[in-house]
């Protein structure tokens, strides 16, 4: 999976709510649909998107399926954010270095005058 597919799946507020509900533990579609203003088939469609993005998995339990958060589902997004954060920290370090050099140059110039 890619971080783009994770972001796309979680962009929809209903899917985010379903994902958050599943963090409490595995649930059937009927249970997830009870607290929503959308139909059970709509919840099933949202679950398919979450499943395709690798965020949830389904297990057959008798006549129904239980959906649960996939533990590594957010890994692609986490990896992407780590690279972004790394770039931000590198840029910050370069800026600090530049400002320290500027202060050092200014201090040297003031001592010479």
Concise description?
The protein has 113 residues and is of the alpha+beta class. The chain is built from five helices and three strands, in the order H-H-E-H-H-E-E-H.
Helix content: 55-70%
Shape: rod-shaped
Count of beta strands: 3
CATH fold node name of the domain at 3-69: Arc Repressor Mutant, subunit A
Order of the strands making up the biggest sheet: 1-3-2
Task: Please characterize this protein's 3D structure.
There is one protein chain. With 113 residues, the chain is α+β, with helices and mostly antiparallel strands. The protein has a domain at 3-69: Orthogonal Bundle (Arc Repressor Mutant, subunit A). It has 5 helices and 3 strands. Strands 1-3-2 form a 3-stranded antiparallel sheet. The chain is rod-shaped, with a radius of gyration of 24 Å. The model has no long low-confidence stretch (mean pLDDT 89).
């Amino acid at each position: 999976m890619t971080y783009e597919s994770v972001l796309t799946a979680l962009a929809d507020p209903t899917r985010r709510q379903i994902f958050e509900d599943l963090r409490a533990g595995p649930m059937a579609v009927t249970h997830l649909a009870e607290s929503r203003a959308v139909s059970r088939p709509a919840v099933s469609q949202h679950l398919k998107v979450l499943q395709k993005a690798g965020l949830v998995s389904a297990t057959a339990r008798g006549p129904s399926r239980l959906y649960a958060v996939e533990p590594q589902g957010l890994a692609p997004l986490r990896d992407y954010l780590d690279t972004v954060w790394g770039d931000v920290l590198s840029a910050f370090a370069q800026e600090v270095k530049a400002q320290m050099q500027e202060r050092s140059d200014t201090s040297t110039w003031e001592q010479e005058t």
